[in-house]
Design a protein that fits this description.
Layout: H1 2-11, H2 33-36, H3 43-51, E1 59-65, E2 104-106, E3 109-110, E4 113-114, H4 121-133, H5 146-191, H6 198-202, H7 209-223, H8 227-244, H9 252-255, H10 278-288, E5 305-311, H11 320-332, E6 337-340, H12 350-362, E7 366-370, E8 398-404, E9 426-429, E10 433-437, E11 441-445, H13 448-465, H14 471-480, E12 483-484, E13 489-492, E14 495-501, E15 510-511, H15 514-525
Parallel strand pairs: 1-5, 1-6, 2-5, 6-7, 7-8, 8-9
Antiparallel strand pairs: 3-4, 10-11, 12-15, 13-14
């Protein structure tokens, strides 16, 4: 039975954010290590001891993501408004190239609607190679195409292997899914209830071993919270096969741009929520869910930090052209910080993204990026976008963020988190973070996708009270004031048998800390 539950919990996880641990303290990431015995970032302590009565200015945070529910009850008043644009008049009032971009823009929408699903970047590369080389052999290939053909063969082998694995995982999951449906139907029959409670199922009298096994199965799924993940898991596996690895699927007609033209900027639509905005709304709430409205989640900031929603991430991999344009849009429309809780292993138009990153940096924007959830060392494994351009030096106003947990000692780094002594600048709480989700709902999610907006939120907090600081100075403050865990021995993510010093998994061996950052900012101002 345990194996089945583990399968449900394990296979139903999203690439970008994982489900909740029911034992996690709500809002633990805002707490203080010393006073609360939780490895949070001391936000509440900062407000109580350092910020009471201080003047603050408005800061704009661009959330480049799947979309944000700008009508959420806990984000009202914290959404950026383009004051130079008149809503709904169909005119580009501010002449920025985007019609009715009142709260941001979507680069994955168009006149035909909005993109919800897309391929993986790996699949898109293979599609192009396959069109060129399918059916050809080494003997029929010109010398000038030999290297590209060899690349095609490598990709074809990988694609076939990945597709087979995805199909096998789907089939395995569906066995569990259908078994649960069968077990649940039996419990409905025995209890004579359409949706029996845990108590009613517990009181069922069974007449044979099969009925007893099905009873135990349903009870364990319901009591572990795995029931909701069954539907999520089913959708995940179906979408993987239907869209991510489907060579015949192309969503770009919805956008209506000339995708080959990476210089094209003025496309998309103003639907900043999109068809599925759970991820982006959760990220936004971590930064700015209202603190004093007596409901829901607690953001690191309040309504003085405005959320600009720039929709760029589908269910699948984001596209480099869209990422580049989203970064430029945010920089041109007043964003102080850009949060990027997404990533992928291939970046065929990386140079276009590099140029946009350099552009935003030149305009004084702080860029914050999630390190990824593959338990890998990104010093030697590709993870895009990143701060290292194809040409030139690393961008100085970029922060790469790994994920930490609320548990102490060796389990402090989230097991899913990517890491890297050279690549990851800082860690932040990313496991079991409670925040906003669409339609006035709330949920705990985990991922470096959650850790990045914790750093973004702390950076915005510093900028709010110390507007004279540059993006580079804020980055330095956050890193230099991080809670020091350099010598703490922790599990290497994905390799629990080996303990290493925290400092070997990131640049400074630290976790972002708002209280320390505010104090250091105060010292700099004096």
């Amino acid at each position: 039975m345990r194996k089945i539950i583990v399968l449900i919990l394990g296979l139903g996880l999203s690439v970008l954010a994982f489900g909740q641990n029911p034992d996690a303290p709500v809002n633990w990431h805002l707490k203080d290590q010393a006073s609360d015995q939780l490895q949070g970032v001391s936000v509440e302590k900062s407000y109580t001891e350092l910020l009471s009565g201080k003047e603050k200015r408005e800061v704009v945070v661009a959330i480049l993501d799947s979309g944000v529910d700008i009508y959420h009850e806990d984000l009202k008043g914290a959404i950026w408004v383009n004051e130079n644009e008149i809503s709904g008049n169909g005119i580009d009032d501010d002449k920025n190239g985007y019609i009715d971009d009142v709260n941001g823009w979507s680069f994955i929408g168009g006149a035909e609607g909005d993109v919800e699903f897309d391929n993986l970047e790996f699949t898109r590369i293979f599609i192009d190679l396959n069109k060129k080389f399918v059916g050809k052999t080494e003997k029929t290939i010109d010398k000038k195409n030999k290297k590209e053909f060899e690349r095609y063969l490598v990709f074809k082998k990988q694609f076939d292997d990945r597709l087979s694995e995805a199909e096998a995982a789907y089939n395995e999951f569906m066995q569990v899914y259908m078994a649960y449906e069968q077990a649940q139907a039996l419990m409905q029959e025995l209890t004579r209830k359409g949706n029996p409670t845990i108590e009613e199922i517990s009181n069922v009298e069974t007449s044979n071993e099969m009925e007893e096994a099905f009873k135990g199965f349903v009870l364990e799924v319901k009591t572990t919270g795995a029931e909701s993940q069954l539907e999520e898991g089913k959708a995940h596996f179906e979408n993987t096969l239907k869209y991510m690895y489907n060579l015949d699927f192309d969503s770009r007609h919805i956008v209506g741009d000339n995708y080959a033209d990476t210089s094209e900027k003025n496309y998309g639509n103003n639907n900043v929520k999109g068809p599925e905005s759970t991820h982006g709304t959760h990220v936004a709430g971590i930064v700015s869910a209202l603190r004093d409205n007596g409901m829901g989640a607690q953001g690191i900031n309040d309504s003085n930090v405005k959320i600009m929603s720039v929709r760029v991430v589908p269910n699948g991999d984001e596209r480099d052209k869209d990422v580049a344009n989203a970064i430029r849009y945010a920089a041109d429309n007043g964003a102080d910080i850009i949060n990027m809780s997404f990533g992928k292993s291939y970046s065929p138009q990386k140079s276009v993204v590099d140029e946009a990153v350099a552009y935003a940096s030149s305009k004084g924007v702080l860029l914050i990026h999630a390190a990824g959830n593959s338990s890998k060392n990104i010093d030697n494994k590709d993870n895009f976008p990143n701060k290292k351009p194809l040409k030139g030096k690393c961008v100085k106003s970029w922060i790469e963020v790994g994920s930490s947990t609320w548990t102490p000692a060796e389990l402090m780094i989230s097991d899913f988190s990517n890491y890297g002594k050279k690549s990851v600048d800082i860690f932040a709480p990313g496991s079991d973070i409670y925040s906003t989700t669409p339609e006035n709902e709330y949920k705990m999610l985990s991922g470096t996708s959650m850790a990045a907006p914790v750093v973004t939120g702390v950076a915005a907090l510093v900028m709010t009270y110390y507007p004279e600081l540059t993006a580079q100075e804020v980055k330095d403050i956050l890193i230099n004031s991080a809670a020091d865990f350099k010598k703490l021995r922790v599990d290497i993510p994905g390799e629990s048998q080996e303990l290493v010093k925290f400092k070997k998994l990131g640049k400074n061996g630290g976790v972002v800390n708002a209280y320390n950052a505010i104090r250091l900012a105060q010292e700099k101002k004096q």
